[in-house]
Amino acid sequence: MSLTRRTLLGALTAGAAAATLPAFAFGGQQRRYLIVIGGPGGANILDSFLPVAHSESANASVLSTHFDEDVLQPAGSTLRCVAPLVDAIESSLIPMRVRYEQATFLQRYGSMTTVMTCEGSSVNHRVGQVRAMNGNTINRGRTILETVGLAHGDGLALPVVNMMGGGLGESGTDSSLPIAARQLSVQDPRTFAMGTHGSLGLEHAPDPGHLARARAARESLDQSSAFANRFAHTSTLQRWASLRQLALAVEDQDLLTKLLLRELPNLTTPPELELLQQTFPCLLTDVFEAQAALTFLLLKNGLTCSVGLAPRNGTLQVEIDGVRAIENPQLAFDYSHNDHRVGQNVMWARTLRVADGLIGLLEQTEDPCSPGQTILDNSVVAFLTEFGRGRERPADALVYGSGHFPNNGVVLVSPLLGGNRLFGGVDPDTCLTYGFDPITGEDRPGTHMEEGDVFSGICEALGVDFPGRRSLPCLFT
Amino acid sequence: MMLLLALTACNTDADPEAPPVAVVDISTARSTLRWKRNRALQNDLSRALALPLEEVCTEVDGSVCATVQRIRYLDWLASQGLDPQEALQECAAQQGTATCQDDIWIDLYSPLGAHTVSLGGNSPFLGEQYQPLAEPGLTTPMALDRMLLSACGERATRDLAGPIEVFEHVGLSAITSGSIEAEQTVSTLFRRLLARDPEAEEVATVTAIADTTPPMSGEQFA
Question: What is the mean pLDDT of residues B54-81?
């Protein structure tokens, strides 16, 4: 542990009166960032960067393969992708639209995109999501966000922020995780900023000097009341006292004006708001876009090192080219139960579009902790999901549903990885993905990688170690 | 501002007519404390300050801080980002009527509000969070202060306009720490919020807030 983390932990356990955020003292280790983009409902890798074309499969008629003309491979890319299935989308039962192409993502970020096959261990949404986030408990039940937050969050105001729902949004289960690395759950990024200050902007906000006096009186009472005398030694009250001190330190950083995503009376908006409105034009009506905007502000302002964001399960209608249509079907990727091809195509387009906007911003923004480098230079963007989707379809059917299926793969985007690589592969005659040798990267048909391998690979890229971490050096070649 | 002190002893709800219990000065390390979460907090403030539940706390953008209610379709549309006017239009369009005839959409009580999660609630239908936080988080103290300040300020404003419910001395142009008005205000709030009389030391600590230059007004002290 670094000295500053030990100092912070000591301050918390002793209930020190003044627990200020320690200055960044990392012992020389480069600060890294993790952005997890969740795919709730089952984001199937065969419907994005590991497609199987009809002509490649002996069983194409009964498997979830793609028309040859729908499988694209941008120039210079090892990875392939799926074209927008416009005809299928526009003729679907409910009016949907896409406004982004997977090929665009590979053209822009293919050189730093790695696809790694893997297999989940549950076909239950919540259980699968939890295991995707904690690597099936490879690190004592800590989530990947918490693990990275603990390693890289020294001195940050909000080290770990999770805006995802369901199992993706749950905290880890390790009670020994220091309080400083516990995640901050954000339900609505559009209103989150208001919760970072105890009074700013309120209609009845008192004079700051009066408020300070009231708080001082409260602290005095907290230390001398009968209630305090009785319960002062309890962990609950000690923890609360520490939290209150940490909150004051956060309040002093004026996060409300740094993280506000909308114009409100008597409040200043961040200077980046106009840029964010251009990048995410629906950020006030689309929670996912708002999450991406908040992610950018958190990283740019040096507040966070570990963030999670994801589309929601609710239907989202937008206007695309003058047509009002659904861009996020009900249940997100799980809409595949109703219409696999359209559900996957629409959700991958949506997810990659927002990811493109965020990654583009990180690529052009200086890392506040490493001048001369961009935030993206020191980041891993991991697309995590609970499972894939079933590979079978009724003979030659174009409209069919798919069930939950653990066999899948993940997408990692980072300059810290080799990039433009596929690790593992897919058997075109079964559409099942298979694993690889973690040392050499060679294909290993008949095997599969686990959630713990994905978890370990991400940590290894970010320089994070923990007992039981697996090594996947092939990812860096 | 006085209400910030309500945090200190937030677990008592004793019968005010019961005989006083002698203070037992035995410290304990057993943690039987429970987090007073969003709904309990809202209820307590509503009762103590004589405010309707929905008016205990309103945020700067007009949204409620934290409440619990049955979900209407308009609530869901608002959670999707529609402003009130857009929500009404969408509702009417979905119903095929000229105007929105909104009613209970999900007949289960669910937390709503900008600070629901911070204050210990969770919004399963609208926020896809199926479990509340196990413990207070980093933004809980600030969300709590916002709720208290909003509730207290609303009560003081209403009392100033009349009729007075809580702050009998809210109309005073100046109030000092040694004044009977300050002491009476403190006692009133302890009884309303903590169901007990304040100790002399507590009165002195709280009334000392008013020792400012220039002196606080009754409304500022409230």
Answer: 85
- Given this model, what pLDDT does residue A134 score? 98
Beta-sheet strands, E only, within B96-163? 104-112
Q: Residue A162 and residue A169: Cα distance in Å, rounded?
A: 6
On chain B, the residues whose CB falls within 8 A of the CB of A217 are 4-5, 205-206, 208-209
Tell me the whole-structure pTM to 2 decimals: 0.89
- A412: nearest Cα among A353, A455, A362, A364: A455
Whether the per-residue pLDDT at B128 is higher than 50: the answer is yes
List the single best residue of B59, B138, B148 to mutate versus A (max A Cβ within 10 A).
B138
Q: Does the distance separating the beta carbons of B220 and A166 come in below 8 Å?
A: no
For residue A13, the tally of other CB atoms under 10 A from its CB is 14
Contacts A262 to B, Cβ<8 Å: 61
Rounded Cα gap, residues B158 and B84, in angstroms: 26
CA distance A307 to A144: 10
Which residues, at least 6 apart from A179, have a Cβ–Cβ distance to it below 8 Å?
A12, A239, A242, A243
**Short-list A235, A170, A117, CA closest to A475:** A117
- Note whether A367 and A375 are within 8 A (CB): yes
Q: For residue A166, is pLDDT > 80?
A: yes
Alpha helices in A24-124, H assignment, sequence order: 86-90, 102-109
Question: What's the pLDDT score for residue A265?
Answer: 85
Among the partner-chain residues B2, B27, B114, the one whose CB lies closest to the CB of A230 is B27
A201 and B60 within 8 Å at the Cβ level: the answer is yes
Most confident of A209-213, A275-279, B61-65: A275-279
Q: Name which of B1, B6, B2, B4 is nearest B193 in CA terms.
A: B6
pLDDT of B20 higher than 60: no
Residue B185's alpha-carbon distances to A150, A223, B75, B169, in angstroms, are 46, 22, 38, 7
Q: Per the CB < 8 Å rule, is A243 touching B138?
A: yes
Which amino acid is present at A289?
Answer: E
Burial of A444: CB neighbours in 10 Å, binned 0-12, 13-18, 19+: middle
Closest of B71, B19, B46, B79 to residue A286, by C-alpha: B79
Interface predicted TM-score (ipTM) of this complex, two decimals: 0.84
Partner-chain residue, chosen from B33, B81, B123, that has the shortest CB–CB distance to A285 = B81
Q: Identify the residue among A156, A196, A218 best suited for mutation to test binding to B, counting B beta carbons within 10 A and taking the highest.
A: A218
Write out pLDDT tens, residues A101-134: 999 999 999 999 999 999 999 999 999 999 999 9
Nearest CA in chain A to B204: A217
Tokens 């939890």 -> residue = A130
pLDDT in tens, A360-407: 999 999 999 999 999 999 999 999 999 999 999 999 999 999 999 999
Q: How far apart are the first and last CA of chain A?
A: 29
- For residue A18, pLDDT beyond 50: no
Task: Please answer yes or no on whether A185 and B133 come within 8 Å at the CB atom.
Answer: yes
| Type of residue numbered A423 | F
